[in-house]
């Protein structure tokens, strides 16, 4: 079998067999995003990293209302807390654990109030959950209440809370801890919304305007839009097969990537993302294949333009250097 040759460039040419270069935003890790945005270490960088973690967790999407987003986050904590309380046996445990469980329900009553922006399905799911919470709380509104709850009551409560969480777009994936660097798809609008939402929670909203402006300005470039946009069917697995080697090509493949038309402000980041993703994939391959390596050679023309020494106070250039030197 002959070696496979693949060519990628900013401007594709079907006649010459040159394909469109794509380095989607969701493939970038937090260090690369910090270098790209020139985020300051005190306020902007923590906000950006938390925003990336939130967006990769699926907590924020531009298509949903902020009211629905906040309720979904609240319901996620409710479901997680109920499952923990049930696992520890607190609802039917000794005093004051059983009383503390009812006190939690009493506090949740205010947070479960519906909003006009909710859909009918969302309102209905909240109504059913609220009715069950009210029932458990009101049964103990007396002088000498029995604080213990029955197991079936708690099971029903968990089921209703999970249904409400699902009605607001939640899923079991919400309860998995996702790192800020996990390559899960998102759009630039989702990221900006996540930065704004997390800045409000962290009290850093006065420091993010310049960072958001830089993101929108650089990504508004027509060439950057083309490079960083993600096709609907583009996954990490498909990207790796396109840029490293398709499955089944045991004789190897040669991939040529032309970065000549990549905007100079971001060419270091684009190159770093491609190189890092390639080397991380090779390391993962070796781990999963019991030490068996996938021989790969990465050749960079004019490599000195990407890896060079900067003064310690070089600002953004230092961050770009650290991003690439890690490769």
Question: Could you give a short description of this structure?
Answer:
The chain has 327 residues and is mostly helical. It contains twelve helices and three strands; from the N terminus they run ββααααααααααβαα.
Description:
- The chain is mostly helical and 327 residues long.
- The chain folds into two domains: 4-57 and 178-325, no CATH class; 66-175.
- The protein is built from twelve helices and three strands.
- The chain has helices at residues 30-37, 44-56, 66-88, 97-111, 120-138, 151-167, 188-202, 209-219, 222-228, 236-243, 267-288, 316-325; strands at 4-9, 18-20, 253-258.
- Strands 2-1-3 form a three-stranded parallel beta sheet, with no helix packed on it.
- α2 crosses α7 (188-202).
- The chain is elongated.
- The model is unreliable at 310-316 (pLDDT under 50).
Q: What percentage of amino acids are in beta strands?
A: under 5%
The Cα radius of gyration reads 25 Å
Strand order of the largest sheet: 2-1-3
In whole angstroms, the N-to-C terminal distance is 31 Å
Mean pLDDT, to the nearest integer, reads: 85
Q: Count of helical segments?
A: 12
Structural class: mainly alpha
Number of strands: 3
Order of helices and strands: EEHHHHHHHHHHEHH
Q: So what's the overall shape?
A: elongated
As for the number of domains, it is 2
């Amino acid at each position: 079998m002959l070696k496979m040759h693949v060519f990628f460039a900013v401007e594709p040419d079907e006649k010459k067999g040159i394909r469109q270069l794509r380095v989607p935003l969701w493939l970038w890790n937090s260090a690369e995003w910090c270098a790209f945005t020139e985020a300051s270490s005190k306020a902007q960088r923590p906000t950006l990293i938390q925003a990336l973690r939130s967006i990769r967790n699926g907590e924020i999407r531009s298509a949903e209302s902020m009211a629905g987003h906040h309720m979904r986050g609240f319901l996620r904590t409710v479901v997680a807390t109920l499952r923990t309380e049930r696992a520890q046996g607190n609802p039917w445990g000794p005093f004051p654990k059983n009383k503390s469980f009812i006190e939690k329900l009493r506090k949740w009553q205010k947070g479960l109030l519906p909003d006009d922006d909710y859909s009918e399905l969302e309102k209905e799911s909240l109504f059913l959950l609220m009715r069950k919470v009210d029932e458990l709380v009101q049964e103990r509104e007396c002088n000498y209440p029995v604080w213990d709850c029955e197991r079936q009551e708690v099971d029903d409560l968990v089921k209703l809370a999970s249904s409400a969480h699902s009605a607001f777009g939640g899923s079991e994936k919400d309860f998995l801890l996702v790192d800020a660097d996990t390559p899960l798809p998102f759009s630039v609008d989702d990221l900006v919304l996540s930065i704004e939402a997390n800045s409000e929670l962290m009290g850093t909203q006065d420091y993010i305007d310049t960072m958001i402006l830089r993101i929108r300005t650089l990504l508004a470039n027509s060439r950057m839009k083309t490079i960083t946009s993600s096709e609907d069917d583009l996954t990490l697995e498909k990207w790796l097969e396109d840029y490293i080697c398709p499955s089944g090509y045991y004789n190897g493949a040669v991939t040529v990537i032309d970065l000549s038309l990549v905007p100079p402000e971001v060419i270091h980041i684009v190159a770093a993302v491609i190189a890092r993703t390639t080397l991380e994939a090779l390391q993962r391959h070796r781990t999963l294949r019991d030490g068996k390596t996938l021989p790969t050679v990465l050749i960079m023309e004019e490599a000195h333009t990407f890896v060079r020494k900067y003064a310690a106070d070089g600002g953004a250039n230092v961050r770009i250097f650290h991003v690439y030197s890690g490769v």
